[in-house]
Amino acid sequence: MKSRGPKILTYAMLLLAILFFVLPVVWITLTSFKSQAEVFSYPPVFVPEHINLRHYAGVLSGAGGQALRDSFIVAGSNALLSLVAGVPAAYAISRWRIGGQHFAMWILSIRMFPPVVSAIPLFLLFTNLQLLDTYLGLIIAYLTLNVPFVVWFMKSFFDDLPRDLEDAALVDGANRWQAFVRVVVPLAIPAIVSSGLLAFVFAWNEFLLALFLTRSAVKTLPIALSSLVGGHEILWGQIGALAVMAILPVVLLVMLLQRYVVRGLSLGAVEG
Amino acid sequence: MSRAGGRKKALKQRRPRAAWLLVAPTALLLLAVSIYPLLYSLRISFFSWELTAAVPPAFVGLENYVRILSDDPRFWSSLSKTVYLVVGGVLIELVLGVALAALVVRCGKGRSVVTALLLIPVMIAPVVVATQGIVIFNVQWGPLNYLLSLIGIDGPVWLGDRHIALRTIMLTDVWQWTPFVIVIMAAGMQSLPVDIYEAAEMDGGSAWRIFRHITLPLIQPLIVVTALIRSMDIFKTFDYVYVLTGGGPGSSTETVSLYNFLQGLEFFSFGYAAAMSYIQLIIISVFASVLIRHMRKGLA
Q1: Which of B37, B50, B142, B276 would suit a FRET pair with B115, their CA atoms being 20 to 30 Å apart?
Q2: How many domains does the structure of chain B reveal?
Q3: What are phi and psi of B48, to 5 degrees?
Q4: CATH code for residues A56-265
């Protein structure tokens, strides 16, 4: 084994780095519990004297309640639709190379487009179709992000899934559909759930398309947060509380899905 | 390995006729929600399409593109700021990411805890990061300059100084995305064969020489892919600037995405905005095609 000196140095540097990356998140959480005076005091108060839940109540009864509901509706329905469309397609592409590699790559490239490219035409089209500022409009717009994501994520999963079990089911007299539903889907449940949850997070976090396509009837969390910051009287405690509510589901998912997150964020280019 | 095996079998298995039915809904859906709007946008980009003016849209051919490229200093200025963010951000994130990953792989069992902690910033909405950035970077009562003052550093005016603000945006991106690079690189380093290292250590190579001559060349493909992914993402930088600076002070942090947004939703010049988005699309496509080529190599 190597000497202890460098080992301790390694841990010290790593600890410093982790503090750098995690402390701002801790700061946000603490801010949400502070009183208004503590928010603006200097030197800054890091740990509030009392755990103050006022800001949570305040923001939930105002803009935050609507934002949470809208974000859940849009991200939830979008993730479900993306799974319904994406999983069977991913299976067919993986098993029988439908459309060849070009088709798969075409789907992937849609995911890489800058969002502003689709935001501009969707704004004009939705104006004509009266989909502007509706749940349905935003749900449709996010399909351009999440269907390619689900297809690509699930394709890489099916590529790695041995087909012996399906073959065995076919030999036992099951038809293709039965083999898919009874053998493949149960095995794929963890991956399907993971890709759905990641798709949920992408929709949950999205800002630019929402800015183009919604006004007041639909207000997702990022939109609500950015307008709270732009207001006359900035309520930092409430913003902190809303930020924590926006972060919380995401942090829980990271804990659950650790090994899928990297694969998902790199569109399968990197195995987590 | 398993992929190559799967492919051989795939050739043996007959493709059922119903397979098309599984793909058709997705293909039609993407044609409707992505390709059709894209073509629609291409058409708009050849028109003078002012929503505010009473005049109907008029066909102007390539005029929008010509004006953007030859007669719009604000576009070029926003492009150069965007490129500055891409180059600086990618370099810093890669150097820090690789270096810290080399530390992460050494910490044995603690690795999964470290990874979970590192992935938190990555998954947070950029808008949340930016709203809190306003507080953290605040010059009067923000915690960052206070902490710096404790170690004797007079912190800069992070967001209000036109010579600093763009670098503050870069710092924000580095904060959120370096952990992503660390986790990727650590996973890559972890999967390298152990025997090479044992042989190198027996030959008496120093830790640095082993890193420089063995680890780095082996993870080079991973570095290229990561650099491309990050370049494409940073090129689209919008949320941070919209919330943190609004493009200011002056226009010192106005990225292409932000300028493009303003042309659309503030000035309502949709033809011009569509043309500009197509120019962005072409630039991104160059990155994307290189990335896809690399990913294909990985699949083959």
Answers
A1: B142
A2: 1
A3: -90, 110
A4: 1.10.3720.10
